[in-house]
Design goal:
The chain is of the alpha+beta class. The protein is globular. Bound molecules: adenosine monophosphate and zinc ion.
């Protein structure tokens, strides 16, 4: 068993994670959620100077808007779509017969207007664009969504369904870069406040296929993505618990986000992987928050 799988088994044995029988899909205990809630409130406090507008989204988003985001070009392997039964009574009988006999009953399911949200900031760009040109200072939004990514794994930190909290900056390129740099500079402070060994490093997204390799290389060359890495499942290979992204004018162009002078807005976001951070806390401080260092408990109001 890998280090990560062993840590997952420990979390399950301790009752912090509740097994569903699907890798990467877990229920969480009250203790896990208390730590999550403390972390969530702390993220609000450390972001208070952003004076961000709050938006909270459901786990699913508009399929048309998702298509327009280009997600299927970059990450078809991760996307989760929502399909439903839309047939008549005859088709219903056939469906039930398939289930009863253990045959595939899903082939006839039809795509709905919704897909699972891949990242918390995706639903926000079209909503912002619909308001018209941005105000002169641009905008800063505090978003949270349950996100879905099809990457089943026995590493408890690699979930299929997880919560992502983000601060998203929309504005001139220099506004977005200043915002991202400010959060990158804060990264060691975040690690220290949580009592976690954290490093920041250049990163890339897991783009699909052969052209994906070129996209990933170019993303690295341009320094568009950084991650805060903390050992969670594995001691040797630390896990990305936060990311600091600069999208340039990608979403601005796709969604029609404009600045008062008519130019296309640039965007960037700072994302917190909530479950990963909670698991990192359990990994490094033990499974009983009452015994954690006083400073960490104070940070998380535990
Ligand atoms: P990304 O958009 O890939 O940079 O994701 C933002 C953050 O979400 C990452 O830094 C992780 O902390 C978290 N995250 C991404 N994928 C997963 C996953 N499969 N399971 C749990 N957390 C994830
Ligand atoms: Zn984002």
């Amino acid at each position: 068993m890998s280090d990560a799988a062993a840590f997952g088994a420990e979390l399950i044995k301790a009752g912090l994670l509740l097994e569903t029988g699907v890798p990467g899909l877990y229920g969480r205990s009250g203790t896990f959620e208390a730590v999550h809630d403390g972390l969530d409130a702390w993220i609000t406090r450390i972001g208070v100077a952003e004076r961000a507008e709050i938006m909270r989204f459901p786990p699913a988003m508009n399929r048309k808007r998702f298509e327009a985001s280009g997600y299927m070009r970059g990450f078809p392997q991760l996307a989760g779509t929502i399909h439903c039964f839309c047939g008549d009574e005859r088709e219903h009988r056939a469906l039930l017969a398939c289930i009863e006999t253990g045959q595939d009953w899903t082939a006839g399911q039809k795509a709905t207007d919704a897909v699972l949200t891949p990242a918390a900031c995706y639903p926000l760009y079209p909503i912002l664009a619909a308001r018209g040109p941005l105000p002169p200072g641009g905008a800063t939004i505090d978003v949270m969504s349950w996100c879905y990514r099809h990457e089943p794994s026995d590493d408890p930190a690699r979930l299929q369904s997880f919560r992502m909290r983000e601060y998203v900056r929309i504005g001139r390129p220099e506004d977005v870069l200043e915002f991202r740099q400010r959060w990158l500079d804060q990264a060691p402070v975040i690690g220290a406040a949580l009592g976690l060994p954290a490093l920041t490093d250049l990163a890339n997204d897991p783009f699909f296929g052969r052209t994906g390799k070129l996209k990933a290389d170019s993303q690295r060359e341009q320094g568009l993505k950084f991650e805060l890495l903390i050992p969670v499942g594995s001691a040797e290979k630390p896990t990305a618990c936060m990311s600091f992204n600069y999208h340039q004018d990608l979403f601005g162009t796709l969604c029609g986000l404009t600045l008062p002078d008519g130019s296309t807005a640039h965007t960037g976001c700072v994302g917190f992987g909530m479950e990963r951070l909670v698991m990192a806390l359990f990994r490094h401080h033990g499974f009983t928050p009452a015994t954690w260092p006083a400073a960490v408990r104070a940070t998380l109001s535990l």
